[in-house]
Structure formats: structure tokens, C-alpha cells
Inverse folding.
């Protein structure tokens, strides 16, 4: 496996056969500078969120994903096997709300990327409609810079420029609408496209993640809020980094534990809110392995009682309890599978490994 690119946050490998492996590390980069402190599981969180969106948007645009599971074991969960694309060096940004660099550009000359906006907009204002505000991917300054739609046309041709704009706005609108259903505002987002081997314009990189988008909670959104909206994305780290007096040059500041923790919690929170899925936490081991079924019944009965619900289950005979336990597990969509240890279990109770069925 050959490493072909080591980005600020992700590493790119070429797999035997020609597929690419995009590996998301736990690194954080702000203002184009990598910070020395990783955020545990960040790479996995972003990979999972991106994968969820790629599927969600599959009818909008072809994407580079080949497989999320057919990846080397050492990178499981944080890697995507993907098609190698000839990347288009334009950062395709859609904005539905005004903040960050877009806001500063607007305050200076009333436009963003050449798009004229109405007067009177403030930090966090919702735009009349989402706008396409591309930036260069690389520039002499090393930072991304706004370019106009005309610039994009000159760079990639009229037809492709229009496709980039339309696809970017469609991805944003679909994403924003989907996230809004779960109380999340997507203020803006950045996507990258490339050409696949057959010349098909394809969505690459990552999509609608906490690194590539600004996420706010709808119930906390306050246009004009001093210091900006409360961020559930990388903005949280950007904001913290500036409180340290850092001048945005190498080396980046070391993140204290509480900032690492709350960044991670924010990434998990957004992942869960958007996808409706629960993030499995390593620091909270699953209670299922080796759960004693008899104990399980007792625990559930006790829980029901606590809630004022009385179970008629008073089985004392082992076989009855056994049957009740199995019914309970099947009602909970948990399949008990006998573990090897069960045979050696000394206290006489059968122990099971229970597996949650995803349904
Ligand atoms: N399918 C793909 N084929 C080729 N390059 C890709 C593909 N998907 C993403 N990339 C590139 O991989 C890199 C991802 O790493 P990242 O850490 O984001 O790097 P960067 O610092 O360049 O933004 C980006 O440069 C992105 O353009
Ligand atoms: Mg990148």
C-alpha cells in the first residue's frame, strides 16, 4: 500500500488494483494549521457521517465510494475505499447563512464571491436563497481565496462550472432540509468534485461533515449574536484557538482536555442528531457480552416497577424464566448466542452473548 498524499487531516493510499483508500485521522486543523492534539474517534465520526450522507445523496450525484467495509483492518471505521478521481482544484462552497469569511467579505463590499447580497445582513443571517461561493483550493498564500463564478468558468469551462454550482447547491439544499428536520441548521458547506476514469463528474472527499460544514442548533440560532453562533463543528475549535492568543501560524496551540472532550461531544451530538443513530462509545462498554439472562429479567422487571408498570412475571422455575428471558430478548430484537465461556461457567447460570439486530 503506497501513501500518495498526507493531508492536514486525512491520508490517501493507493491500494493494489488501483483503488484509493482515504483514511481520516483524529487530527484537527484550524486556519490551515494542524494542531498537536488529536480528538479521539474524530476520524471515525467524520467517516461515518460522510458515508451516511453519500448514501442519502446518491440520487443527486455519483460519489467516489466503493466500499466502507472492504478496507484494511487497521483502518476499519475510519477509511473509505474509493475511486481515484482527477480532482477539480475548486472548493465548492454553498452558503445558506452568512458567517465567517463570507460575512467579512460581505461587510467589506456587499458581495461574496461576486454574488450581490441585500443590505442589512448580520452574523448568522439567513440568506434569501443559498449561494455558490467557490474558493481556490490552493493559492500562493496557502489559504483558500474567494473566486467568482466567472473565474470558475475560466478555469474549468462554462458547462462544468454550471454543473459544479448546481450540484453544490443541490447537495446543500437537500442536506440542509434533511438536517433541519432534526433541529440542525447547516449554515454552509464545502464539497470537492473530480472526474472518474469514465469522465463522469463525481463527488469526492467528504460531504456535510463537521469539518466541512458549519452546524448550528436551530433552537440556539440567533442572528446578530456577538461572537458568532454556538458551533457544533470545527468552528468550536477555531474559536477556542483564538482565545489562546495564537497568531494562526505554525505551530498550533495544544488543546486542553476539556476542549478535546467537548469537541468530541459536539461531533457525536451532531452525528446522532443528523443520522438518528447512536454513536457506540468505547468508554462505555456494551453491557451485553456475558449478560446473565436471569439477571436481565430481574433488571427489566425492576425497571418496569420503577416506572409504575407491574409485570405479572413471577416465574421461579428455571425453565419458565428461561422462556421469559428469550421472549424478552426477541421482543427487544436481541439474538442470544451461546459463548464458549458459557460452557465453563462455574456458577451454573447460562451466560449469553447478545447481539443487537439492526432493524
Ligand atoms: N476520490 C479521490 N481521488 C483523489 N483525491 C481525492 C479523492 N477524494 C479526496 N481527495 C483528496 O484527498 C485529500 C484529502 O485530505 P485532506 O486532509 O482533506 O487534505 P488537504 O489538506 O489537501 O485538504 C484532499 O486533497 C482531496 O482533494
Ligand atoms: Mg481537505
Amino acid at each position: 500500500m503506497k501513501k500518495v498524499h498526507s493531508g492536514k487531516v486525512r491520508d490517501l493510499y493507493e491500494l493494489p488494483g488501483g483503488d484509493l483508500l482515504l483514511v481520516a485521522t483524529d487530527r484537527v486543523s484550524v486556519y490551515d494549521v494542524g494542531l498537536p492534539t488529536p480528538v479521539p474517534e474524530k476520524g471515525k465520526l467524520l467517516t461515518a457521517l460522510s458515508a451516511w450522507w453519500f448514501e442519502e445523496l446518491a440520487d443527486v450525484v455519483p460519489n467516489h465510494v466503493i466500499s466502507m467495509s472492504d478496507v484494511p483492518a487497521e483502518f476499519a471505521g475510519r477509511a473509505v475505499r474509493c475511486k481515484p478521481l482527477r480532482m477539480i482544484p475548486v472548493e465548492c462552497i454553498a452558503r445558506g447563512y452568512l458567517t465567517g469569511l463570507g460575512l467579512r467579505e460581505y461587510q467589506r463590499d456587499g458581495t461574496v464571491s461576486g454574488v450581490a447580497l441585500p443590505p442589512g445582513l448580520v452574523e448568522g443571517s439567513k440568506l434569501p436563497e443559498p449561494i455558490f461561493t467557490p474558493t481556490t483550493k490552493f493559492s500562493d498564500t496557502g489559504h483558500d481565496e474567494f473566486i467568482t463564478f466567472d473565474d470558475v468558468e475560466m478555469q474549468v469551462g462554462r458547462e462544468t462550472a454550471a454543473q459544479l454550482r448546481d450540484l453544490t447547491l443541490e447537495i446543500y439544499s437537500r442536506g440542509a432540509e434533511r438536517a433541519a428536520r432534526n433541529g440542525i441548521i447547516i449554515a454552509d458547506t464545502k464539497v470537492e468534485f473530480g472526474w472518474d476514469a469514465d469522465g463522469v463528474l463525481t463527488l469526492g472527499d467528504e460531504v456535510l461533515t463537521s469539518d466541512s460544514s458549519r452546524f448550528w442548533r436551530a433552537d440556539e440560532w440567533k442572528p446578530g449574536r456577538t461572537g458568532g453562533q454556538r458551533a457544533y463543528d470545527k468552528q468550536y475549535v477555531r474559536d477556542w484557538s483564538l482565545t489562546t492568543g495564537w497568531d494562526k501560524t505554525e505551530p498550533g496551540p495544544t488543546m486542553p482536555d476539556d476542549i478535546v472532550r467537548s469537541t468530541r461531544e459536539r461531533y457525536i451530538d451532531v452525528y446522532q442528531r443528523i443520522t438518528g443513530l447512536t454513536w457506540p462509545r468505547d468508554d462505555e462498554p456494551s453491557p451485553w457480552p456475558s449478560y446473565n439472562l436471569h439477571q436481565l429479567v430481574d433488571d427489566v422487571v425492576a425497571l418496569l416497577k420503577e416506572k409504575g408498570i407491574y409485570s405479572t412475571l413471577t416465574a421461579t422455575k428455571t425453565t419458565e424464566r428461561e422462556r421469559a428471558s428469550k421472549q424478552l430478548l426477541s421482543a427487544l430484537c436481541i439474538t442470544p448466542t451461546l459463548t464458549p465461556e458459557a460452557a465453563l461457567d462455574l456458577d451454573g447460570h447460562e451466560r449469553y452473548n447478545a447481539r443487537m439486530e439492526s432493524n
Summary: The chain has a mean pLDDT of 87. The pocket of magnesium ion (ligand 2) is lined by residues 7 (CB under 6 Å). The CA atoms of residues 60 and 171 lie 7 Å apart.
